[in-house]
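Annual report, structural modelling task.

Input specification for the zinc ion complex:
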Amino acid sequence: MRVALFGDIHANLEALEVVLADAREQGCTDFVCLGDVVGYNANPSECLEIVRALNCPVVKGNHDEDAAGDHSLDSMNPTAASALIWTREQLTEDQREWLRKLRMVRQVSDFTIVHSTLDQPANWNYVTNRFDAMSNFSYQFTQVCFHGHTHVPRVYVKDSKVHEVAAESVQIEAGSKYFINAGSVGQPRDGDWRACYAIYDIDTRLVVFRRLEYDIAKTQQKILDAGLPEMLAARLADGR
Ligand code: ZN
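The model returned the following structure:
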């Protein structure tokens, strides 16, 4: 069984469509969403309905939480906040309710999913080094956990110590634990603009990362047409 793990879509419809088509071509029969379906880009409603129609496990991201609520976004950076205020206006009450009901952590098959980290997931901490990963591993009770949030594909392994290995293909080995960031579909930040997701083959225990080109010019034009901050269109091309 091959499972597609995808998250940080951030309302980027062109990237999401390419990822889902590729996952099906690659023989994925199951889909798992790592959160942040909305925020930043111009198609929140369309992306939400595509993910909802998959009827797959989804965990809540911080942008999902902020788009679903009515609380002040004053403490957030102004670009993200203005996109979220716009996003709130695009979503129906039914869609906001769907986002509100998403769970923070789920177990799927033999692995766990969370948007940020299992160490206080509602605090939305970023895992950017092995010390952050150590905090997660203290709360990780399955051998493998997938997450997102930083928009950077990363693989942390815990054997006799916690270390990072290249986010290429990863063979899950007995005796080790894995905390794997599947990267971002709709706003990658590792310097590579292409949409990113991961495939986990549960039978061979192999995780592979996929990078895919999409119609970025179309996504950028939609951002500008919507009156969203120009910087959100520019950053897509930089992969930052
Ligand atoms: Zn995100």
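The chain has eight helices and eleven strands.
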